[in-house]
Amino acid sequence: MSPDGVDRLLLAEAEAYAGRPTAVLDDVSGALVGGLGGSSEVRAWCSDSLVDERTAAAETSLEPGGWLDPTVLAGARLVVTRLPKSLAALDELAGAVAAHAEPDVVLLAGGLVRHLNRSMNEVLADHFGEVRASLGRHKARALVASGPRAGAGRPWPREEHDDAEDLTVAAYGGVFAGTGVDVGTRVLLGVLDRLPAGATEVVDLGSGNGSLTAAVARALPRARVRGFDVSAAAVRSTLATAAANGLGDRVEAVRGDGLEGVAAGSLDLVVCNPPFHRGTALDRTTTPGLFADVGRALRPGGELWTVWNSHLPYLPMLRARVGSTSVVTQTPRFTVTRSRRPA
User: Fold this and answer.
1) 33, 1 contact by CB (below 8 A)
2) HSE (CB half, 13 Å, CA atoms) of 10?
3) Per the database record, which ranges form the Methyltransferase small domain (predicted)?
4) Which residues 6+ apart lie within 8 Å of 121 measured at CB?
5) Cβ-count burial of 342 within 10 angstroms (0-12 exposed, 13-18 middle, 19+ buried)?
6) Tens digit of pLDDT for each residue in 127-164?
7) Residues 223-234 as b or e (16 or more Cβ within 10 Å = b)
8) In sequence order, what E strands does the chain have?
């Protein structure tokens, strides 16, 4: 993939720190891990998204590390990253850099100007003594942080108990909905008592913070429940939420693109709240592929229960890719459907 404006800005800003041992975080195109080799010494890199990781891996011979793993940041005197969408994700990232990189580390975090806000500076200032903004170019700017303060801020993951669902949700910084229960997920939770009671092989596709995964495991006590998500932070959150609710022995979490690795015709039940954003951009392009993957993985007679925004044209898509589909419940904003693979 070609570098975008944020990549070009970060590559230019990094030239001032040539020769420093460097870690790259959340490269979405490979432009950073590939392009920084000439101006600095890239020793380690990692991405939250498995899709981004695979894209970047094509541009470097270095193996990726675990997301925000201390070994990725150890020894780094320059860390280059794209600014995450949420302040919580930025807080976790900045805290990890401050805790595990070198004392003289410089953090370069770039984003499009229209996505920057003063709160990002304030989050970085919680973990670094000095924060400044670069000059703008390519419609992007970088926030430049130095003087790390290790141990500042609260640790991750964080937990919150949802009284309405009697569920404790644990989440790492970059996970959609954080420690809350997403409003669409809550609609699906309201009909879990109607799930097929005999289902034993169950998957939550796009498990996020694991709230739906844990609730399904609780509703189907005989089932093996697995959460699948492309995000490393989501996989960790799913496991943390399961543990917080005493379900750690019955819930697994897998970092995967869709249902890759799942045998055809092996699942009794899939639940799904399909993702519709990628970073700061609206993106529903993955949904048709997810539904087709579910249709492949379900056994004959197996079911997909999914919740989606009611204005979206998902009903014919579900019928074409999975099977017979009916509406279970509907609100002005959300629709829950049950799709059954033909027997």
Assistant:
1) no
2) 35
3) 167-337
4) 131, 133, 143
5) exposed
6) 999 999 999 999 999 999 999 998 888 999 999 999 99
7) bebbbbbbbbbb
8) 21-25, 41-46, 78-82, 106-112, 128-133, 140-148, 158-162, 167-171, 201-205, 224-229, 251-255, 267-272, 277-278, 281-282, 298-309, 324-330, 334-340
Q: Number of C-alpha atoms within 13 angstroms, CB side, residue 253?
A: 26
Q: Binning pLDDT at 50, 70 and 90, where does residue 1 land?
A: low
- For residue 277, what pLDDT is reported? 45
Q: State the amino acid at position 17 in one-letter form.
A: Y
Place of tokens 């290790």: 150
Query: Alpha-carbon distance 33 to 43, whole Å?
Result: 9
Residues near 297 by Cβ (< 8 Å), separated by ≥ 6?
203, 259, 262, 263, 264, 265, 266, 267, 270
Whether 107 contacts 136, CB under 8 Å: no
| Tokens read off for 122 | 């304030």
Specify which residues 164 forms β-bridges with: none
pLDDT band at 285 (very low <50, low <70, confident <90, very high): confident
Interval 294-327: pLDDT, tens: 999 999 999 999 999 999 999 999 999 999 999 9
Residues 290 and 258 sit within 8 Å (Cβ to Cβ): yes
- What type of residue sits at position 52? D
310: left (phi over 0), alpha (psi -120 to 50) or beta: alpha
Tokens found for residue 144: 């430049």
Instruction: For residue 323, give Cα distances in angstroms to 200, 264, 341.
Output: 20, 15, 5
Q: What percentage of the chain carries pLDDT values higher than 90?
A: 92
Residue 210 phi/psi, 5-degree rounding, is 85, 10
62, pLDDT greater than 70 = yes
Q: What is the DSSP string of 109-150?
A: EEEEGGG--HHHHHHHHTTEEEEEEPPPBTTEEEEEEEEE-T
pLDDT in tens, 77-107: 999 999 999 999 999 999 999 999 999 999 9
Q: Is the pLDDT of residue 281 over 80?
A: no
